[in-house]
């Protein structure tokens, strides 16, 4: 079900004890291992950090590697990046028991002051991973062409119900024999009116379609 | 004739809900020291696991159960000092800084779920006085009071959680046969009840046990420094 189907002031803030008006927009990024979630987060940070106050929560499967990648690449100062440990079950931490992630989000807001946007990156999982509405306001699902052009057809909650589907690594499509028109058609079939964008983060400005979508969500969040 | 009357106010169902590993209180990311014990070669199979759980139950399990029972009784008092005293008592019984942080973190996470499920002034007071989290057994006992449970039920929950979490973690870490692990837990049931009874007695007498497991403390300190780990503790 699409996030817009419930009131914006409902689930997300209910267990946080933070008035929804006083908190940042929360966007989750999920998707299979290696599809480019961390690269997308890094590119989004670079694209948005001069215009927005933002922070990132990462959920690695068994290391703090994603958080360290972001630190190493200096996309944000260290105090704006928090790593959450997930006890072998990355999907549990973003869906069934979101307490550690909610705490990380709240602690970032408490220590940094008012933020515009918090990105919550899930640990690399499978096609069934999805974020709880109690944790994020919108979710982005990142897949890539090298995982096979059948992924959109296979569906699953991330592919069919995420607020934005990102098909990454389009530059590799000719090399792996992936047909982007088939992927676009299958995505449309699975997702109806929900948006899908094709990205190649290897190219300069490759994250622009995702950044534009995030800006539009933030705009709607501020006007709500 | 055995008494077949259900506990009043849905207390039996509440107890089941709180004991359910799917209750969203953060426990799924913690191994109760099992991850470090597995790495150290101290748990390799279900026999090692049974010994580990027995030790855990009679040390930190007993202490946590008594603290939880005492907290359920203390939560009936509108004066929050009694719960604060128990929080300090938990600190004194937790020598490892890593385990103290873990206990407060789990306390904070349980408090979030408890306030959503059973809103109660005692839970609000605890949140106000311990914004970074009170110790887990103190929150568990207060939650039990808010949910209409008894000190004995709170102790039973603490004792059960002291073995259930690490057992599940070992299924994930070692790929142990889940049926054998279930059997290990089933065999422990009489001991769980015995520890619960001992904890309740101690709490009633105001003589809180200070049973601890130095090896668990040492393993927890080591674990907190690992760079690559599956569980938060």
Automatic annotation (TrEMBL), chain A:
Classification via PANTHER family: UREASE ACCESSORY PROTEIN G (PTHR31715)
Family, as annotated: Belongs to the SIMIBI class G3E GTPase family. UreG subfamily.
Gene for this chain: ureG
Function noted in UniProt: Facilitates the functional incorporation of the urease nickel metallocenter. This process requires GTP hydrolysis, probably effectuated by UreG.
Record-linked Gene3D superfamilies: P-loop containing nucleotide triphosphate hydrolases
Entry binding sites for GTP: 31-38
Assembly with partners or alone: Homodimer. UreD, UreF and UreG form a complex that acts as a GTP-hydrolysis-dependent molecular chaperone, activating the urease apoprotein by helping to assemble the nickel containing metallocenter of UreC. The UreE protein probably delivers the nickel.
Species this chain originates from: Kitasatospora paracochleata
Domain of life according to the entry: Bacteria
Primary location group: cytoplasm
Annotated protein name in UniProt: Urease accessory protein UreG
TrEMBL record, chain B:
Gene3D superfamilies (UniProt xref): Urease accessory protein UreF
Gene: ureF
A family per Pfam: UreF
Keywords: Chaperone, Cytoplasm, Nickel insertion
Subunit comment: UreD, UreF and UreG form a complex that acts as a GTP-hydrolysis-dependent molecular chaperone, activating the urease apoprotein by helping to assemble the nickel containing metallocenter of UreC. The UreE protein probably delivers the nickel.
Record-linked InterPro entries: UreF, UreF_sf
Biased composition (Basic and acidic residues): 79-91
Chaperone keyword on record: yes
Region (Disordered): 73-101
Presence of the UniProt keyword DNA-binding in the record: no
Name of this protein: Urease accessory protein UreF
Subcellular location, record wording: Cytoplasm
Function summary: Required for maturation of urease via the functional incorporation of the urease nickel metallocenter.
PANTHER family: UREASE ACCESSORY PROTEIN F
Record family assignment: Belongs to the UreF family.
């Amino acid at each position: 079900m699409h996030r817009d189907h419930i009131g914006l002031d409902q689930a997300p803030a209910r267990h946080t004890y933070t008035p929804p008006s006083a908190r940042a927009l929360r966007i989750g990024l999920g998707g299979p291992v290696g599809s480019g979630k961390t690269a997308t987060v890094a590119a989004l940070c670079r694209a948005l950090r001069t215009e927005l106050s933002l922070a990132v929560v990462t959920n690695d499967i068994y290391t703090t590697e994603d958080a360290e990648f972001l630190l190493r690449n200096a996309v944000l100062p260290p105090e704006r990046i928090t790593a959450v440990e997930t006890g072998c079950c990355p999907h549990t931490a973003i869906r069934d028991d979101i307490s550690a992630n909610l705490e990380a989000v709240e602690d970032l807001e408490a220590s940094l002051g008012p933020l515009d946007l918090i990105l919550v990156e899930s640990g690399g999982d499978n096609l069934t991973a999805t974020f709880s509405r109690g944790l994020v306001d919108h979710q982005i699902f990142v897949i890539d062409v090298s995982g096979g052009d059948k992924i959109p057809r296979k569906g699953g909650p991330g592919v069919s119900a995420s607020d934005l589907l990102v098909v990454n690594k389009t530059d590799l499509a000719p090399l792996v024999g992936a047909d982007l028109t088939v992927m676009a058609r299958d995505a449309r079939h699975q997702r109806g009116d929900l948006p899908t964008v094709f990205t190649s983060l290897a190219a300069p400005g490759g994250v622009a379609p995702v950044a534009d979508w995030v800006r539009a969500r933030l705009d709607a969040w501020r006007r709500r | 004739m055995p008494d077949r009357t259900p506990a009043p106010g849905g207390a039996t169902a509440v107890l089941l809900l709180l004991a359910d590993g799917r209750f969203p209180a953060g426990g799924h990311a913690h191994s109760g020291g099992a991850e470090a014990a597995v790495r150290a070669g101290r748990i390799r199979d279900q026999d090692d696991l049974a010994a580990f759980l027995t030790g855990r139950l009679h040390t930190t399990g007993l202490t946590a159960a008594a603290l939880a029972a005492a907290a359920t009784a203390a939560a009936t008092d509108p004066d929050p000092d009694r719960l604060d005293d128990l929080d300090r008592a938990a600190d004194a019984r937790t020598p490892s800084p890593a385990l103290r942080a873990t206990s407060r973190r789990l306390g904070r996470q349980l408090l979030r779920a408890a306030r959503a499920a059973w809103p109660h002034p005692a839970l609000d007071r605890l949140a106000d006085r311990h914004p970074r989290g009170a110790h887990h057994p103190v929150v568990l006992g207060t939650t039990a009071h808010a949910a209409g449970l008894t000190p004995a039920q709170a102790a039973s929950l603490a004792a059960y959680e002291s073995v259930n979490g690490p057992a599940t973690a070992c299924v994930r870490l070692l790929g142990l046969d889940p049926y054998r692990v279930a059997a290990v837990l089933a065999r422990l049931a009489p001991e769980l009840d015995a520890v619960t009874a001992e904890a309740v007695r101690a709490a009633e007498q105001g003589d809180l046990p200070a049973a601890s497991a130095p090896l668990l403390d040492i393993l927890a300190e080591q674990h907190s420094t690992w760079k690559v780990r599956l569980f938060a503790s």
